[in-house]
Write a structure and sequence with these properties.
The protein has 220 residues and is an alpha/beta fold. Helix 9 packs across helix 10 (202-211). It starts with a strand and ends in a 9-residue tail after the last helix. The protein contains ten helices and six strands. The chain has a six-stranded parallel beta sheet, with helices on both faces. The radius of gyration is 17 Å and the shape is globular. Strand 4 (79-84), helix 4 (92-98) and strand 5 form a beta-alpha-beta unit.
């Protein structure tokens, strides 16, 4: 059973998501919060698998909620998906760096929303296609300075290759096909790279790949 926490200051949004999730046999809404401060209390009490968090809220915004959850080792199993009314805004990159697993726009189709919750619960990165494109575009037009000491020297050659492919948006199965290895081996390479780079999830791994200079958009 996938345990979900809904965090949004609009009751109508929460009720809509709750009704949709409640129809699924493998998903349970365990709590709701109307602001970030309330969300932090509930996430510690209920330990959800997925927290669907509005990026803009009163009292405490979604980025600060994400940062505090990601900083707490006891909440390592909570996967944060940011909800936004916009396909992209100025907070996306800060939230990814803070530890968000991905983003969803609120006008997403119901079937895509349900799929997204399941993907996030597995610990996979979740970025809407429009946001992924703009994330790449951002590094093309304004590349972030390379960051030293991110642990890149600890990666094996295969792990570097796997991370580079993940940063291009490939799934584990696609990475496996590209490197002519099994999907389980591809997953192992990604997981080991995440551990060495101290990336909370796959989304952070992608950001680190670009910011460290391991991957450049033009190379993809």
């Amino acid at each position: 059973m996938i345990r979900v926490l809904l965090v949004d200051d609009q009751p109508l949004i929460r009720s809509g998501f709750r009704a949709l999730l409640g129809l699924e046999d493998d998903i349970e809404v365990v709590a709701e919060a109307a602001d970030g401060q309330e969300a932090l209390v509930l996430v510690r009490e209920r330990l959800p698998d997925v927290a669907l968090v509005d990026i803009r809220m009163p009292v405490m915004d979604g980025i600060e909620v994400t940062r505090r959850i990601a900083a707490d080792p006891a909440l390592a199993g909570v996967h944060i998906v940011m909800l936004t009314n916009y396909g992209m805004d100025e907070y996306v990159f800060d939230a990814l760096r803070a530890g968000a697993a991905g983003f969803l726009v609120k006008d997403i189709l119901p079937e895509d929303f349900l799929h997204a919750v399941r993907v996030a619960a597995r610990g996979d990165a979740l970025l809407a296609p429009a946001i992924t494109r703009k994330l790449i575009d951002r590094y093309v037009t304004r590349p972030a300075p390379a960051r030293a000491g991110d642990g890149l020297e600890e990666l094996t050659g295969r792990e570097r290759e796997a991370v580079a492919l993940a940063a291009q948006g490939l799934s584990n199965d696609e990475i496996a096909d590209h490197l002519v290895i099994s999907p389980s081996t591809a997953k192992t390479h990604i997981n080991r790279a995440m551990a060495k780079l101290h990336a909370r999830d796959r989304a952070q791994l992608v950001v680190l790949a670009y910011e460290s200079g391991l991957v450049t958009p033009r190379a993809s």
